[in-house]
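User: tokens in, sequence out, please.
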């Protein structure tokens, strides 16, 4: 059976290779596989739900002919009972189908969100630098909701209406094939405009989603930047900017309505023409005796039941189109390759014993604008290397290549002779600890954030990390100690406290290579003194890369490298660099200690 499905899929893939909708469905539908039984049950229940629509129309023929025309009240007593019975069955099935639909849709949406989140986590810092929080939320969360839940809901609706239409068309032909042909022709004419709706609204809808993403970003900025807004009295400015965004979203929504709203009145007109033709021709058939009154009433009832949902198909078609647009965006995210991936022949991080070597490294974020210009440097195991220089000169970019936050494309970076591009990413980063200028803390407790360094750390290891980071006295002052919640982004902590938690996290990771990216530059003197003591503890017995703004913190480094405008201009110890006449390091030193 599996081979048969594979052959069928292969043929479909070949036949519809260029069809965008088919490609999207072929990517999304496998997510329904674990819930196949419930999916088929949810969709299968739509068949009797739709088919039972014909019962009422079919029952009216004998009722009209026997009761209304022949006045035989007792002969059709069972018809009202049957109608109630079938309607009850239909309502029960509809409830079960809706429940199954929501269950499967929710499960598939959750699985899809997990896949999208996994893809998101593997993107490079460069990817996030180009995105906004609103775009991320819309693309990786909201679109998943629309595509999966919307897909199943629309499939259920389509199946229900398909079998409702088939059964009702059967009733039409059962009562009069002449009138049925007219009804089917009118039905076909009503469906034609729906074929172009997706292409008509796709660009507008995608633009609308982009503007909605900006709205979400604005809310996030109001949350994160509330102090700046208050401190600079930016209420009016931010409100004007928000109003402008909302007005744009409103205008785009109206454009979508303009492209879709005309469908409903058009359907009404086409349907009314069909009903008028049927009444006109039906009257002549009744007058000629070729059709009974019961047949005519049954036919008209079936026709109205068939046409009623057709008149509302404009909105349904809009929902399907927006669902498919969301699905296209989801599929593009699922198929997006990670910015950093393992090479086919990648190896684990070596047993680091010798040196790290930068070989003629050239790097650009934007084509034609080079940030690093042929930097070569050798760092022996156990050495502390400090990078200083002008702001934007390339210091952070250079150390960001160590954990492979960005790919080395020109030149090479090796660990004991093995290229960084040949080392498995997870293995590489396991052996490098990074303390950033502004360490990001997650919502949770102090314990939660420190334990991120090593989720399997023992209580003794955790205690040592806290002591070495000079957090012990601070934690003792808290009511809940290490289990004190710190708020989103650590908003309840000072800068120095955040840094020490970041340092404790690095302690717990216990990696042989350490990167300190201006870890004390944003602190006051008192906080810097405490944090620097913690850093000194952290640096012991490790190969350390330090980016420093305050030269007093790196005077004992084994090697100091001056990087200006992407070039390594000076290299040596503190004493050696001070001996260079008109040297750049000497100028920096004199400026700070004049």
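Assistant: Sequence out:
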């Amino acid at each position: 059976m599996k081979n048969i499905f594979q052959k069928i899929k292969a043929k479909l893939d070949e036949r519809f290779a260029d069809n965008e909708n088919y490609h999207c469905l072929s990517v999304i539908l496998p997510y329904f596989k674990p819930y196949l039984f419930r999916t088929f049950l949810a969709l299968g229940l739509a068949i009797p739900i739709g088919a039972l629509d014909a019962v009422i129309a079919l029952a009216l023929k004998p009722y009209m002919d026997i009761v209304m025309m022949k006045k035989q009240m007792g002969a059709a007593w069972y018809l009202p009972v049957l109608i109630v019975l079938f309607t009850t069955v239909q309502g029960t099935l509809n409830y079960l189908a809706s429940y199954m639909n929501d269950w499967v849709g929710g499960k598939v949406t959750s699985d899809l969100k997990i896949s999208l989140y996994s893809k998101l986590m593997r993107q490079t810092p460069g990817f996030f630098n180009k995105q906004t929080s609103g775009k991320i939320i819309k693309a990786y969360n909201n679109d998943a909701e629309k595509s999966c839940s919307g897909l199943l809901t629309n499939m259920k609706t389509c199946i229900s209406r398909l079998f409702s239409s088939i059964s009702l068309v059967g009733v039409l032909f059962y009562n009069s094939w002449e009138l049925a042909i007219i009804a089917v022709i009118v039905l076909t004419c009503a469906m034609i405009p729906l074929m172009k709706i997706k292409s008509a609204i796709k660009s507008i809808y995608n633009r609308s989603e982009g503007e909605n993403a900006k709205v979400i970003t604005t809310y996030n900025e109001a949350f994160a930047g509330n102090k700046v807004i208050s401190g600079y009295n930016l209420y009016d400015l931010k409100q004007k900017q928000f109003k402008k965004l909302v007005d744009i979203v409103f205008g785009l929504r109206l454009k979508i309505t303009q492209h879709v709203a005309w469908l409903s009145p058009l359907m009404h007109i086409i349907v009314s023409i069909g009903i008028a033709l049927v009444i006109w021709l039906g009257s002549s058939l009744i007058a000629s005796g070729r059709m009974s009154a019961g047949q005519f009433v049954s036919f008209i009832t079936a026709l109205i039941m068939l046409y009623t949902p057709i008149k509302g198909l404009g909105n349904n078609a809009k929902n399907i189109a927006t669902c498919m647009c969301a699905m296209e965006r989801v599929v593009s995210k699922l198929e997006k390759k990670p910015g950093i991936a393992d090479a086919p022949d990648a190896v684990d991080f070596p047993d680091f014993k010798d040196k790290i070597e930068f070989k003629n490294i050239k790097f650009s974020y934007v084509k034609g604008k080079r940030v690093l210009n042929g930097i070569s440097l050798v760092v022996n195991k156990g050495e502390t290397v400090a990078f200083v220089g002008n702001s934007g000169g390339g210091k952070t970019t250079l150390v960001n290549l160590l954990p492979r936050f960005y790919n080395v494309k020109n030149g090479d970076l090796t660990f004991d002779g093995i290229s960084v591009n040949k080392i498995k990413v997870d293995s590489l980063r396991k052996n490098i600890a990074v303390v950033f200028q502004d360490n990001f803390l997650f919502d949770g407790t102090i314990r939660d954030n420190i334990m991120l360094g090593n989720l399997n750390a023992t209580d003794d290891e955790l205690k040592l990390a806290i002591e070495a980071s000079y957090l012990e006295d601070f934690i003792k002052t808290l009511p809940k100690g290490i289990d004190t919640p710190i708020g989103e982004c650590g908003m309840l902590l000072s800068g120095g406290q955040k840094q020490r938690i970041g340092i404790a996290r690095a302690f717990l990771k216990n990696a042989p290579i350490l990167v300190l990216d201006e870890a004390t530059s944003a602190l006051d003197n008192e906080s810097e003194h405490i944090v620097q003591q913690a850093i000194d503890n952290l640096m012991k017995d490790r190969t350390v890369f330090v980016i420093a703004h305050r030269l007093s913190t790196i005077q004992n480094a084994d090697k100091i490298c001056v990087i200006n405008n992407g070039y390594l201009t000076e290299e040596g110890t503190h004493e050696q660099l001070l001996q260079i006449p008109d040297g750049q390091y000497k100028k920096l030193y004199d400026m700070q200690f004049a």
